Amino acid sequence: MNIKKAIRDGLSIVFENFKMIPVVYIANTSLALLLALPVFSLLNNDIGYKGIRDEMTSGFNYEWWSGFSLNAEGLEKTIRPALSGGFAALFDNFELLFTGKFTSFGLMIFLFGLTYIFLNAFFNGGVIGLYADEKRTFSISRFFSLSGFYFHHFFALALTAVLLFFVFYKVIHPAIFGLIDHFSVKWMSEKAVWFLNLAGYFIIGLFILFIKIVFDYARIILVVENKESSWLCIWLAFKFMIRHILKTFGLYLILILAGLGLLLVIGFIQELFQPKTLLLLLLLMIFQQVFIILKIGLRFTFYGSQLELYRQYKPEMITVKKRRKVK
């Protein structure tokens, strides 16, 4: 199977089970509201008290933010100029990914992020479980049954991934850039130092991709092969990825490019579309929710396409094991 066919079959699986997308969307939105509502109340009180509400409709007020952020704590640290622009938030996310400074917004936001990871670990079991099932008949009860059935395994995988990334950002990441700093001191050329740092970030990106791909296939192998050990699945996924490294990396990179294209579209629209009336603001909010739904669909496409790629190289496997009899 070539990558193109894997993606086409993966998309077909996603469309067949599209009803899962609103379920996951509602759950994620409900979780996000736990932060969004307190932030809204905080901003509403502060902006209203200082009388700059009208000014904020025409653009971000940096003077207000400089004073606001001076003594910011907890949720207040999440208020940044990047939230007002189309591409700024994207660059901020890339910075977090490549630096690993996930606690820079405070412990509360960090714990909230961990909650999001484990919530999606729950849903991933239902998604991959239904995709791996030959019947692929969606119902709310089957989806949640499969999610619960695989949760202890997927929780273990998510926890292992979090610990692995912790070691990566605390040990490997500093080692790479420590080595770069060592060579940079000896090199007088700024251009050479710039390319050396670029190479460092490239290596960091490869490490991140490597870990994410291995854990994606570990989830797939756990469900499809009916394994009992989550850690064994990580090892099997590692061997599978190494054996088919061009296919697995190629598939992942193509889907990442699709995701980046989606981010660029939303970025351009938000840069050009500055809402100054309530109607325009509501239209922008609707557009952003559509974007979130598309992101969820893209994440499911990763799993569907990777599952189809794995199936091609494991023709002897039994797609649905007898153990998984969830009606």
Q: How would you describe the overall organization of this protein?
A:
The chain has 327 residues and is an all-alpha fold. The chain has one domain. It contains eleven helices and no strands. It has helices at 3-16, 20-50, 53-56, 62-70, 88-99, 107-132, 140-186, 190-224, 230-243, 245-272, 278-313. Helix 2 (20-50) runs antiparallel to helix 6 (107-132). The two termini are 31 Å apart. Residues 315-327 have low confidence and may be disordered.
Topology (elements, then pairings):
Layout: H1 3-16, H2 20-50, H3 53-56, H4 62-70, H5 88-99, H6 107-132, H7 140-186, H8 190-224, H9 230-243, H10 245-272, H11 278-313
Helix pairs in contact: 1-10, 1-11, 2-6, 2-11, 6-7, 6-8, 6-11, 7-8, 8-9, 8-11, 9-10, 10-11
What attributes does this structure have?
327 residues, mainly alpha, 11 helices, disordered C terminus
Unreliably modeled segments: 315-327
| End-to-end distance | 31 Å
Strand segment count: 0
Order of helices and strands: HHHHHHHHHHH
Note the overall shape: globular
Please work out how many helical segments DSSP would assign.
11
Report the average pLDDT across residues. Answer: 81
Largest sheet: none
Q: Domains counted in the coordinates: how many? A: 1
Q: Cα-atom Rg, whole angstroms?
A: 22 Å
Structural class: mainly alpha
The helicity comes to: over 70%
Task: Tell me what portion of residues adopts beta-strand conformation.
Answer: under 5%
